[in-house]
């Protein structure tokens, strides 16, 4: 018998509530029991969690199932993570580690790792990876590569390869007021040019043509995303070299 408080917590999710309303089931409990799996998990640190994974297409993203994790408290259930994963690739362990895997695109699978911090699960880019699927060049790449300037210098060249839907993210820490310059060193036809985008959190800062310079508005971590693009219907590897300079 499902805990009524857990069912009530699930019903606070608008997608699940919509699925229940359109399902024809007599009660929310009947729907939830049929369309979700549940794993009770007590961490070594003592927190009691419930891992809920969708079995139907309710709220799914492509092949990614809903994954919701609740902490059981004296007053009910508190949501501590909401994400998506291939159902068979969802693994939560008692040491507070959570592994998920899901398609970011047809050609890429993100294998992401989270760690319990005593309050919630926190995403760990350094322990996550991207698996790129191609006809002749399957490979695993770091989810995000931190940029560290050697010997106090403020310029570095980033080199790699990209193909359709598979590139590389780079992160760096900078201060508000610093000037950043990003330059392409690898000539490319405009119709096959690898997209280069700069972000601060979820905010888009810049799209890079041949080069871009700007003064940063915020202090913190920036992400430079190098995306693969379609090669006239094929997925040929595209080499790139990018100079990043901070003053």
Describe this structure in words.
- With 247 residues, the protein is mainly beta.
- It has two domains: 4-132, no CATH class; 144-246, Jelly Rolls, CATH 2.60.120.380.
- The protein contains three helices and 19 strands.
- Strands 5, 6, 7, 8, 9 and 10 form a six-stranded antiparallel β-sheet that branches.
- Strand 9 (129-132) and strand 10 form a beta hairpin.
- It is elongated, with a radius of gyration of 22 Å.
- The chain starts with a helix and ends with a strand.
- The model has no long low-confidence stretch (mean pLDDT 88).
Write the layout of secondary structure elements.
Blueprint: H1 4-10, H2 14-23, H3 28-35, E1 36-42, E2 48-54, E3 65-73, E4 76-85, E5 91-92, E6 97-105, E7 108-116, E8 121-123, E9 129-132, E10 139-142, E11 145-146, E12 155-162, E13 168-174, E14 179-184, E15 196-200, E16 203-207, E17 211-215, E18 220-226, E19 238-246
Parallel strand pairs: 11-13
Antiparallel strand pairs: 1-2, 2-3, 3-4, 5-6, 6-7, 7-8, 7-9, 9-10, 12-19, 13-18, 14-17, 14-19, 15-16, 15-18
């Amino acid at each position: 018998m499902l805990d009524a408080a857990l069912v009530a917590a699930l019903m606070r999710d608008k997608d699940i509530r919509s699925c229940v309303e359109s399902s024809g089931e007599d009660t929310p409990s009947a729907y939830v029991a049929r369309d979700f799996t549940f794993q009770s998990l007590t961490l070594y640190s003592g927190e009691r969690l419930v891992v809920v994974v969708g079995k139907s297409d309710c709220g799914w993203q492509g092949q990614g199932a809903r994954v919701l994790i609740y902490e059981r408290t004296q007053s009910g259930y508190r949501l501590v993570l909401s994400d998506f994963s291939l159902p068979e690739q969802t693994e939560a362990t008692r040491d507070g580690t959570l592994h998920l895997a899901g398609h970011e695109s047809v050609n890429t699978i993100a294998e992401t790792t989270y760690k319990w911090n005593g309050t919630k699960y926190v995403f760990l880019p350094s322990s996550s990876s991207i698996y790129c699927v191609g006809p002749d060049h399957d490979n695993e790449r770091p989810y995000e590569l931190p940029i560290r300037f050697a010997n106090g210098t403020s310029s570095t060249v980033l080199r790699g390869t990209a193909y359709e839907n598979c590139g590389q993210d780079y992160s760096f820490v900078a201060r508000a007021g610093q000037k950043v310059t990003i330059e392409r060193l690898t000539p490319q036809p405009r119709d096959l040019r690898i997209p280069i985008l700069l972000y601060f959190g979820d905010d888009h800062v810049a799209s890079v043509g041949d080069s871009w310079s700007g003064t940063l508005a915020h202090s913190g971590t920036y992400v430079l995303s190098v995306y693969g693009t379609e090669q006239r219907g094929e997925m040929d590897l595209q080499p790139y070299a990018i100079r990043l300079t901070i003053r």
